Amino acid sequence: MKDGALQRTLLTLAGAVVAVLLAFVVSSAAIIVAGADPGTALLAMFDFGATDIAVSSSIALILNRAVPLFIAGLAVAIGFRMNLFNIGVEGQYRVAALTAAFVGGQLALPAPVHLTVIIVVAMVAGGLYALIPALLKVYRGVNEVISTIMLNFIALSMAAYLVRGPLSGPRDEGQLTTSTTPLPESAQLPNANFLFDLFGMPAPRGAGLWGFIIVAVVVGVVIWALLSFTRFGFELKASGLNATAALASGVNPKTMVISAMVLSGAIAGLISMPEILGRSFAYGTGFTPGLGFLGIAVALLGRNQPVGIALAALLFGFLDRASAPLQFADIPPSVVTIIQGSIVLMVVIANEVTRRIALRWEERRAAARLAVPVKTGATA
Amino acid sequence: MSTSSDPPPAAPPAVELEGITKRFPGVVANHDIRLTVEPGTVHAIVGENGAGKSTLMKILYGMQKPDEGEIRVNGEQVVLANPADAIKRGIGMVHQHFMLADNFTVLENIVLGAEPTRAGRLDTASARTRIRDLGDSHGLRVDPDRLVENLGVGDRQRVEILKVLYRGARVLILDEPTAVLVPQEVEELFANLRELTAQGFTVIFISHKLDEVLGIADAITVIRRGTTVARVLPAEVTARQLAELMVGSELPTPETRESTVTDRVVLDVREASVLGETGRPVLREVSFPVHAGEVVGIAGVEGNGQSELISAIMGLARLSGGQVVFEETDITGWSTRQRRQAGIGYIPEDRHREGLLLESSIWENRVLGHQGVPPARKGIWVNRKAARKDTARIVREYDVRTPSIDTLALALSGGNQQKLIVGREMSGTPKFLIAAHPTRGVDVGAQAAIWDHLRGARTAGLAVLLISADLDELIGLSDTLYVIYRGRFVARLDPSQVTPEQLGGYMTGAITEDVS
Prior knowledge:
Helix content of chain B: 25-40%
Oligomer: heterodimer
Distance between the termini of chain A: 10 Å
Number of helices of chain A: 16
CATH architecture of the largest domain in chain B: 3-Layer(aba) Sandwich
CATH architecture of the largest domain in chain A: Orthogonal Bundle
Helix content of chain A: over 70%
């Protein structure tokens, strides 16, 4: 009988929806306090533009924001699965972005190889940077939350120094910003605007939909399969649910911490790839920060499940895009931040509540079936 | 506490339940429960796991509300909406699984949630006095300033009882209190309980150990299939009659028949030593072989090195000296996984801590510990289909009562969880099995089934190391019996000759004899 599992899934879903709705209620209060009308705000958020091209562009904007968030959420979720709090995704993706952009800018290779090299370098750099807190935890018992936070600061400052100094690319006279050597054409990922064609929509303006979305989907599927169907995924989950039982079952906690952390870091290394390979073609002043921290929220919202993370990333992308139209409607765009914050808060609460309800249901169902064994089929 | 209560002649019952019915969607877990507990008595509630004792307890302690019926405390009808209500009415509960914070002192644990304060700060001085007084007047002496992690099981239980008394309880519910105790500790507990009842406290004692129930209880209520089927006095019934009331079937016996011991050594522990956290040896040069078809029993008061011995064999603790040899291969340096995959099964002493993923489904729990071998494994994948199929087999063969194999493990009763673990560890034809307290906290029916499975595997040539606090189980199942005391084997006994009293003597160090 699978109805138990189905019920649990529905309950989770219902919890998330209620949380999002409650967050909008809280945000509406904030909007009213700010002197605006929640209705107008809501309309503005769903206003994707008047023309087809504007709609396409809005969707591309949402997706371009959602893809890095999705990857960041995946990276965080791998650690969360075994109660390993990799707060260092922020630093890991920055180190990876700088390294990959620098290496990519130095090479001249055929396009597919060049792109592959950059992506691999990014994953290796992110993974190695995550290896530091993993080793500290395994061999010195250093709490990974503290070490990763500290390593974030180091990554931030180190990257800022390196991109101005040793790793900076050519700079025009009078140019104030610095960046690594721009990637040659062979390392520029074509856009994925053909996806709009498939839906009979016009191509968006500007750089369009970054081509990395395809890679991100593949990564998502791989991670999903890894977490749900492999022995590694099972051991990861077991370590998270009951570390002593995992130990007694032959799961080596040291191996698990190291592999989960490094894998998390390697995925984190991909976070900046959509942007670097799709628009900026260098690591520099225009780098988008903060995705690692948002990834924590996205992973929480998505309950560490790849599909949930994808939905959460889309929601965050949608909210981010909404800041511009909100401004046009004379509503402070910080409303978006308030909504995001309240969603995360509500979801954390909803997760705990639904988890408890689900467990209680399960206990009752089993107790109910076994308390009065009248039906002979009860044990089948 | 005051000892002022000398019950007047016609005192109302301390607790009275009438017509209590509790329905869960679709079915009835408790129906028409009738229970009258006289003040100042020990009232035992016996019944198989799943008979509805837990639900009844939850109702009494305010954790669940009955759909019908009345609860009267000291003759006064009450509604218990939550445990705080129950505590207010003087009802306290000592849980089977201790609810103590290891890194707190006894005092901190006792006052937790009911802290006395002075000027906003924890008033440890008055708490200490009060705990000392409580301890002295009830014979529950525990040093309030010791860390709970350093306490033995008996002391922890006394802390739990003190915790309840500290909150002013007059009625104590004890859920399977003897499950974790050795005979001497059980005696101490019973002495404590008798003292408490003599002072007017009322004890509700839940157990399936019928001998103990008959020894301590003033009255017994039997629950079967969700309802109270009989109220008897211990003087009027025998253990067998009581068991029949409980299950309506024959009492199982743990005795093994003819010997199936072969001369092939499967596991050989050679002068194994393990250091404790303080650097002092907790297991000292222990040597023994386990042959195919042999059950080697280890008796000992908890905390004398049994856990370390298990850890050493499973590869969970590092040996400071000696060897573990499995099928003529030195496996001292092997990982837990290698050992498991080589054919070592493990029924852990604490199934919640080491044996189960409570929030995972039953089939996932089947995979746990066996994720590296077929049928659960297929290359890098977990073979869901095969694992599910094999789980269904375990559920069938080991009579695991569950709605489905997708049910979460936490929803099963203790006995069924244990049967699942036994089934899991027996699958894949292990060559050697560690069974640590395999029937702890399970009902008579499950106990008999588990004993049968152990016996069957032994006949088929399995080598078993049995660690248990249940001396009847040890004597009945073992072919060879060792006693462990302070990390050493102090006696090697023939289970067919030894009596529980003799065993108890060795276990407490009262009798000494060297085996090495």
